[in-house]
Amino acid sequence: MRSALLSALLLAGCQPQSRRLLLVDLASADPLVIEATAAPWDAAGYAVEYRRYYPHLARQDLARYRTVIVLGGSEPEGLSDALTIGDLAILNEWMRRGGVVVLAYAGAGEGSLDRWIMNRWLAAQGAGIAIGTQPLEDTVRAAAAASPREPAGVPLPWSALDNAGFAPFAAGRTHVLLVRDPRQVLARTTATAFTRPSSAAPAAGPAPAARPHAAIVAASRVNDGLILVASRSTLAASGVDPRTRDFLVALARWTRRPAEWANVAPTTTPAPLTLASAPRPIAVHPPPLAPPTGAAVVVLPQPPVPIPEDARPAVPGWIDRQGMRVLWTRYTPSDLDSLLAFVDAAALNALATVVPVAALADTLGTRNVFRLTAERLQTTSLRWFPAVVLAEIRSEGADELDRRGDLVAIPCGLDSLFWRGALRPSYHALARLGGARPDLIAGVAVDLDAAASRYRGTGFCDGDYRTGLAALGLDRAETERLAALPPVERYDTLLERGVLGRYYEALEASVAERAITLRAELRRSHPDLRFAVRATDAPSDWFSLGLLRGFSTRDAPVLLWTRDRRGGRGVLQHYRARGIVALSAVGLDAERVSAGEWGRLRPLVFSEHDGFWLPRAATDSAGRLIRRLAK
Description:
24 strands; 20 helices; alpha/beta; globular; disordered N terminus; 8-stranded parallel barrel
């Protein structure tokens, strides 16, 4: 792994400035998440470098890179960094030097601070582009869109980007771009796109406003340079839709050909930059000459690490024969018979039931309920995975702190009381639900969704902070100085010292050590017990990754159930390089899959993944269609 990464870095270092691209993500997402964004630019001939743990610009970047992609953060609605006045100063210089600046805003309910700052900077440049406040929706969507409300994008015929094709593509979550000149538009929505007032609920409120053919990708020429604006969701959608990838590769190639920019409308006279009345205070943060020493770049996409045949994960026989065919549902004893009827109609082989935390208490009533459930399940051939929602497990210990030093409504990830008094008892209770038939339970599952989003951007409670500092290898005096910092200063200090990456690695490793201990305890009484994890996207926060590492082994890989259609073999290879051994199943919503689509899903389900899971039971007729989805 290290030799492959070193070779990639050396190759990138030999590239001329015109081919080097810096990817700055103010959300500091894991490279696993950013790879879909980087892939089209790599395919277009750029050497893409990503500096995760210093998401700001330095003066050195002006000489090294010609193109920069700035992925907007999620503040104030979510946790992230945000553009600073120093970043804007470097972007001004970038334009004066004839570079390419790609502004990729976050949308659909987050990132309003960076959108506001981007709009003020665009206005100061005279770009003639403004990012609208409302997300777009569409009654017609691209077939591969992740959500039914995400609009389809359409390359604009006879635009400056005239080689991007004509096929509609999945555009992801995007807002209206308001442009001064039609020549700035490179892609737009269909005639049926609309915006919904923010005060309106989906089923009520003011009528949606029609926005036919609204611009969603636009550019402006600045002397010898170029400004390009799109949503970060659009730039990441290449992993969802091949047609989106085709458009983005054409777009990336176009940014390398200044001779083809002539048809793009130029900027008007620049105006003074005004940043008064921002939604939150904007950090001044003068740009450094160079990034901190420890804030290394990685080259994206990262090359997959081949797995030797003798190191491949052991696949259980029931998965190898049929693939995972899982129904995920809340535990309701009164609905058990109807659930089992649907499971039989759909030929599923595993049932995951979310058990409320209160029902895990060992009382006479709960023992009787689960005894009856176990007796009913014994009459089937199903593998049972009792599950718990991690965000519902509370602790009497400390709460987590985010990068701003604010409390987050989730337990401190490395608080001993949380593990000893809450997480460990919950897992032991799940494993005991089989009663006298422990073999009835094939494994225990955890829903990471809400917890993973809350752990992102955290890791600064006292328990985390002591563990992370101890792993940095600093001298005693420096460790004591950093330990005395108030929570509000911890993130920024580690960021500016260039040790934030090592700090998060230490937190992840510590979670993994505790999960290994918990796994060993549970498997002493249940040697064949499996661990399963459900999440919308492939987990990438330090706490979730630590759990996955600790719960997985080559002989008993963790079962990963996500909705992310990009989370196939490539993601599992990257996980393996980080010590996580997993088998994956992709989420399918039976109510949104047409009868003709089931056959076409087979390569995704059984080639890219090891099966599928359903978020809810459906009708018997849908069950019969699902039954046809055979390995």
